Amino acid sequence: MQSSMEKVARLADLPLQRGTRVKIGETPILLVRDGDAVHAYTADCPHAGAPLEKGALCHGRIVCPWHKGTFEISDGSLVEPPALHGLTRYASTIEDGDVYVSPEPLEPDARAPAGGTATMLVAGAGAAGAAACVTLREAGFDGRIVLAGTDASVPYDRTALSKFVLAGDMPPGDVPPLFDPALFSAQRIERVESDVVALDASKRRAQLANGTAVDYDAALVCTGGTPQPLDVPGAKLANIHLLRNRDDASGIVDALKHCRRAVIVGASFIGLEAASCLRKRNIETIVVAPQKVPFAKQFGERIGVMFKQLHEHNGVSFRMERNVAAFEGDGAVQTVVLDDGEHIAADVVIVGTGVKPATSFVSGIALADDGGIDVDSGMRAAPGLFAAGDVARFTLPRAQTRLRIEHWRVAQQHARVAAYNMAGASRVYEGVPYFWTYHFGKRFDYLGHVTEPDDVVIDGDLDAQQFVAYLLKDGKVGAVVACEREDQTARLAEAMRETLTLDAAREAAKG
Ligand SMILES: Cc1cc2nc3c(=O)[nH]c(=O)nc-3n(C[C@H](O)[C@H](O)[C@H](O)COP(=O)(O)OP(=O)(O)OC[C@H]3O[C@@H](n4cnc5c(N)ncnc54)[C@H](O)[C@@H]3O)c2cc1C
Ligand code: FES
């Protein structure tokens, strides 16, 4: 045993179902029991710092309680994003039933470089783009990586915009970057802050807005979505905002400084997260949307009603089954006119009615009707061309039809599969979709994917927002929605790799 190792626990005291947090000095360490052995890792999730001991250990993996980032128990390596790298490891040993851990982290395993001359183009420096660059190196690719796009010099966590930035809890400049900027030089990623204006899949050539061209061996298109303005009179008046990037959020935050009354158009996740933020600022907030109940299509009506009541309880008003007919104002919006003739006074309007895939620059392949890019299970759209994230029309495991899913972790799951395949592997998408959304201080988890569930079975108290709800389709659990059930959803994130009956899902959630 190294003399510097410190005794941190008794083996017999470590449970098998979850990790145990200990400290060596100021360093938090996660002890994970693996039969009669113990692994020691950093205890805070490398994504956003969740306490990993509150997650789950299942199927040989550690699942983070917050956004379900997943790591191998055996070596801490990354299995599922949104973390972009594995856990820091510490040497551990057991003597006379005592667990000893070194306070010094182990060096990461060096990987053999593969292929040094090829050029990989990553178009879009967002969720998928960041994950793809890091994964290309993880996969052993040693050649040139070009990351193109103008959004920000370092990719950042745009999910914070509608949760913390609009609420005034986080200045736009403090939105967390997805990685340390030093990684660009450490991993030799060429960051070109210029958009791709043309990409010809048949010639494997991209033209950038700065006038340069990139001849690539493989390219990943991960340019996300462009929010769509409303097509009604007055839509170009000042103080009518869309929300996709940090500049949009900054513009909204400035406008909110002089805002007493706001209208949110669209009872979407972004629309209702924005409503939650505006109420925190005591702004009178009205949501206008065409459907009867928010999220009923995704979650079923009962859960949709719960969301609506949660918002109403916190002072949000709704005009459901209504559309905007026009905006009126003198230079800036003053009134929102609905299709039933109602006039609503508003200083600020936020439109959250959906995005269109940002793919108009792509040629040499047929785009889908909605502008999406059809990919196979390896995220391949054509020879040398891959797509990931909001633009990708892919097939879920065991499903027949392609769909686009606009979730952060799905974009990064796609990117990891695509990057491995760009580097010469043959991986397929086997992930479980996961999404989180944040309203009035509560985080809701959504696992799997289903539209218009046949039945919804709720364990727990829906109205107290402490529940797991199983969304059933054709007698199987298609998806799960939950609140304040982090360990159960962490276990389900792994278990739902298989198709589950309700009983099997309940059993898996119990652990
Ligand atoms: C405000 C907000 C909150 C959200 N909250 C959540 C959440 O809580 N949970 C969740 O799961 N999902 C959330 N989402 C959805 C999630 O952010 C997206 O699904 C995810 O970012 C998609 O990743 P992507 O890489 O496909 O696209 P993006 O992350 O949007 O990245 C695409 C990048 O490509 C750039 N680009 C566009 N055109 C070009 C071009 N021609 N050339 C080069 N670059 C280009 C864009 O500027 C952008 O930087 C949220 C989205 C928004 C807008
Ligand atoms: S904090 Fe662990 S995945 Fe986000």
UniProtKB/TrEMBL annotation:
Its cofactor is FAD. InterPro entries: FAD-oxidoreductase/Apoptosis, FAD/NAD-bd_sf, FAD/NAD-binding_dom, FAD/NAD-linked_Rdtase_dimer_sf, Reductase_C, Rieske_2Fe-2S, Rieske_2Fe-2S_sf. SUPFAM superfamilies: FAD/NAD(P)-binding domain, FAD/NAD-linked reductases, dimerisation (C-terminal) domain, ISP domain. The keyword DNA repair does not apply. One of its GO terms (cellular component) is cytoplasm. Residues 6-101 form the Rieske domain. One of its GO terms (molecular function) is metal ion binding. Keywords: 2Fe-2S, FAD, Flavoprotein, Iron, Iron-sulfur, Metal-binding, Oxidoreductase. It holds the Pfam family Reductase_C. PANTHER family: APOPTOSIS-INDUCING FACTOR 1, RIESKE DOMAIN-CONTAINING PROTEIN-RELATED. This is FAD-dependent pyridine nucleotide-disulfide oxidoreductase. It comes from Caballeronia telluris.
